Amino acid sequence: MENRELMQQVKRWVEEAGEYIKTELKQVVKVEQKSNRSDLVTNVDKGTEAFLVNKINEAYPDDLIIGEEGTGRDVSTTDGRIWIIDPIDGTLNFVKQQENFCIMVGIFENGKPLLGFIYDVMKNEFAYGGLETGVYLNGTKLDKPEDLSLADGLIGCNVGMYSENYKHSKEIASAAIGVRMLGCAGLDFLSVIRGKQNGYISNLAPWDFAAGTVLAEALGFVCRKYPDSDYDILGDRQYFVVATPQTFSDMQKFF
Amino acid sequence: MENRELMQQVKRWVEEAGEYIKTELKQVVKVEQKSNRSDLVTNVDKGTEAFLVNKINEAYPDDLIIGEEGTGRDVSTTDGRIWIIDPIDGTLNFVKQQENFCIMVGIFENGKPLLGFIYDVMKNEFAYGGLETGVYLNGTKLDKPEDLSLADGLIGCNVGMYSENYKHSKEIASAAIGVRMLGCAGLDFLSVIRGKQNGYISNLAPWDFAAGTVLAEALGFVCRKYPDSDYDILGDRQYFVVATPQTFSDMQKFF
């Protein structure tokens, strides 16, 4: 199957998952705590992951899958094709706001980014694609955004890192023209790839950065373990940065 | 004229102003700095203020007007009817993102809140009304949201105040379940009155809080100069808080 056909197939699955989420939002959502009071999971996160995992398993039984809500935590090789799923990124926003969350799917092949999907369900903004296919937003191909410097744009920053100035992150954010905190990594990636923020620094699990990394790298952005080493799609939570090349270079001057 | 008719009239003006902004966004926007590099004004801010001031002056020549972009800075009495306008709240977002900004109009009569209007132009979310008319979002009447405690919801906080823990604001934000920074006071007010955030702490000029205060007080929220004194619609920039009664009460325990 061509990458373009695969892109269209997964796009439809993610849209169907979005319809499922909107239907579930009309009913009472069951919320559970995970590691702490702001780390939540709902029956809808679980249902969405199960829906996507089922589609992938049926169509591509040999592919590996890692999902935020428990799928495939024992994956230990990047050989072959790996799907990395965050069924609802921004679950706290989902629970408290019923918006400002997204579905994310990243596909890697032999450790290399293949296709990424970020769908802001309630705003109906859907970015998808990769290096070979190009990156699209609701059907329109995205160009490489301007290579803005740190001082000339907005930046997203994890509140905990900002609060502690972890590895100069507060100083870096303060050197930008403004800082934004949205509570949803996928929305920060969307903002970056659309040229609305020139960077984002956070502490992310692979399902938080996989989809965004495929899209961002395809458009020429830098994606690194923060401040400057290779990210690991099989690793635990890691400090992470996505930025325009110039913004990334400006950040490195703080170290 | 009845309050309800006035509400409908101003709603139409603000919608027309929104159409003007969307048209101007298709052309090159001229940006100037005001007090610092993140305090911007554009030809569209000025054009929107001029449009609204003109409508008010034609219909209500005896009313006083205060606008962010220079209208009526010499107003020194709260007698009669005063209109307080922020033509584009979130100008930095407007310039860098072409979204996440809003038009705000607050009307006070003899110092008391009468009608408020907050229009998120690009998302087409329009909240308007007051104590007598009720508060509406895109035509649907808003109920008083649940009286959430500080620990049970999200809070918006000004990044500078958070950064310095100004008057315990960082500790207070950390006691909430999460903190959000949107770069647009009007969007925080919209989020609060819709029950999606339980509070917002910032440093605001009257045009930043006038519209939101009318809407929030009509729905039973507490609006105070932060941490706890009367706000001043003729004053300079002031520390400001809007919150559910329970969240406000929880905040006071930090002092």
From TrEMBL, chains A, B:
Mg(2+) binds at E68, D86, I88, D89, D208. GO terms for biological process: inositol metabolic process; signal transduction. CDD domains: IMPase_like. Its cofactor is Mg(2+). Keywords: Hydrolase, Magnesium, Metal-binding. One of its GO terms (molecular function) is inositol monophosphate 1-phosphatase activity. PANTHER family: INOSITOL MONOPHOSPHATASE, INOSITOL-1-MONOPHOSPHATASE-RELATED. This is Inositol monophosphatase. The lineage of its organism: Bacteria, Bacillati, Bacillota, Bacilli, Lactobacillales.
